[in-house]
Structure formats: structure tokens, C-alpha cells
Amino acid sequence: MRVIIDRFEGDYAVVELEDRSTANLPRSLVPPGAKEGDVLLIEIDKKATAERKKRIRELMEELWEE
């Protein structure tokens, strides 16, 4: 998903979504140095997600071992 930074308001960046609606994104989630008009990519990191799920599954198996 691509969003465009429209403006900054306090602790939020107002971003335009692909359907042209707007949403408030906490500034803490905006990369340092980003400015009005910049395009941000929001995507799923499939590799990191799979690794995290695997690790959680391993921890659960360790927890339930007798």
C-alpha cells in the first residue's frame, strides 16, 4: 500500500490513502526526514512474519513439553 504525506498536524502525519481518503498516522511511525508529498510504502514483511511465527510455535512447544 502506498500513502502520501499530505501534512503534519501535531503528533500525526495526515496521509492520503490509495482511495483518496485520509488517515492520521502517528509521527513515530513516519521515517525520519520524511516531508509533505513523500510517498510511503506500507507492506507485510513475509519472511520476518514467518520467522516470528516459527519462533512463537517453538516457544509454545517448549512451554507445553512435559
Summarize the structure.
The chain contains 1 helix and 4 strands, in the order E-E-E-E-H. The chain has 66 residues and is α+β, with helices and mostly antiparallel strands.
Question: Could you explain the architecture of this structure?
Answer:
By secondary structure, the chain is an alpha+beta fold. Helices cover 29% and strands 32% of the residues. It has one helix at residues 46-64, and strands at 2-9, 12-16, 22-26, 39-41. The protein has a four-stranded antiparallel sheet, with no helix packed on it. The longest helix is centred in the last third of the chain and has 19 residues, at 46-64. It starts with a strand and ends with a helix. The relative contact order is 0.19. The model has no long low-confidence stretch (mean pLDDT 96).
Keywords:
four-stranded antiparallel sheet; OB fold (Dihydrolipoamide Acetyltransferase, E2P); alpha+beta; 32% strand
Helix count equals: 1
| Helix content bin | 25-40%
As a percent range, the share of strand residues is 25-35%
- The value of Rg in angstroms is 18 Å
Unreliable stretches covering 5 or more consecutive residues: none
The topology string of helices and strands comes to EEEEH
Report the strand count. Answer: 4
- Overall geometric form: elongated
CATH architecture level-2 label: Beta Barrel
CATH class: Mainly Beta
Count of spatially separate domains: 1
Query: What oligomeric state do these chains adopt?
Result: single chain
The main sheet comes to:
4 strands, antiparallel
CATH topology: OB fold (Dihydrolipoamide Acetyltransferase, E2P)
Mean pLDDT: 96
Strand order, largest beta sheet: 3-2-1-4
Structural class: alpha+beta
Measured distance between first and last alpha carbons = 45 Å
